[in-house]
Design goal:
Layout (H helix, E strand, L loop, with lengths): L14 H6 L1 H9 L1 E4 L7 E4 H7 L4 H14 L1 H22 L15 H20 L4 H11 L10 H15 L6 H12 L41 H6 L1
Antiparallel strand pairs: 1-2
Helix pairs in contact: 4-5, 4-7, 4-8, 4-9, 5-8
């Protein structure tokens, strides 16, 4: 949840909040998962870190938590399985594209054009097949529609989503910790923002002491969570 509007200032959870959500906080800090990253390599990290790495897409994560809570474990498990199937099929085709020395796909290659053509056909069939599954539709429109986005297929990011959703889906229906996650991540995200963020100190869960001399003067452009034009056209 690193994409909060600048006008919104996160609140600070109280000691009572920490006691109330003790089980959730324990889960966030002690549950270790494989986090996939491009530059520092894959490693086991607390699931708290994975939330932070995917924080830019917090609305998508909120959608899954809400879907899991409302539809139940069976439906959400099937949905995650379908996500996994789609990602695997996409990756098989994407790996056929020639790469530069830096591993970047050559978008002008015939193989890339073939990939786009093949995926366009699959993408359309998936949209029709899963039109009754609101969450899968959201996933396809926002992460499968290469024609409406200015980014390329990001396997590690999608694998991180699968890891996170699988862990959330491991809870049984009615588990109190699911309610706690929903309350702190979906209902009142602003108040509990700090529980799900990645601190600038790297992978540590504690904040490093700030050093004014080491702060970069470069301003980073905030990226916003985008919806595809396909969804806009449906309304």
């Amino acid at each position: 949840m690193e994409d909060l509007p600048r006008s919104m200032t996160p609140q600070t959870p109280s000691y009572e909040d920490e006691k109330k959500y003790a089980d959730l906080l324990k889960w966030l800090k002690e549950t270790k998962v494989l986090v996939r990253e491009d530059y520092v390599g894959d490693s086991k990290q607390p699931i708290h870190y994975l939330f932070g790495r995917l924080g830019l897409f917090y609305k998508f994560i909120q959608e899954f938590i809400t879907f899991k809570k409302s539809k139940g474990k069976a439906a959400s498990r099937l949905t995650v399985d379908m996500m996994d199937k789609i990602i695997r099929e996409m990756d098989i085709e994407y790996k056929k594209i020639p790469r530069t020395d830096k591993g970047i796909a050559v978008v002008g290659s015939p193989e890339y054009q073939q990939f786009l053509k093949a995926w366009q056909a699959k993408f359309g069939s998936y949209l029709d097949k899963y039109k009754d599954n609101e969450f899968l539709m959201s996933f396809l429109e926002d992460f499968g529609n290469l024609y409406d986005r200015d980014i390329w297929f990001d396997l590690k990011k999608l694998q991180n989503f699968l890891t996170l959703f699988s862990e959330i889906n491991s809870w049984d229906d009615g588990d109190p910790i699911l309610d706690e996650l929903y309350e702190t991540y979906c209902e009142d995200a602003l108040k509990y923002f700090t529980w799900y963020r990645v601190y600038r100190g790297g992978r540590k869960l504690t904040r490093r002491k700030s050093n004014p001399k080491s702060k970069s003067k470069r301003k980073y452009k905030r990226r916003s969570y985008k919806k595809s034009s396909y969804r806009r056209q449906r309304h």
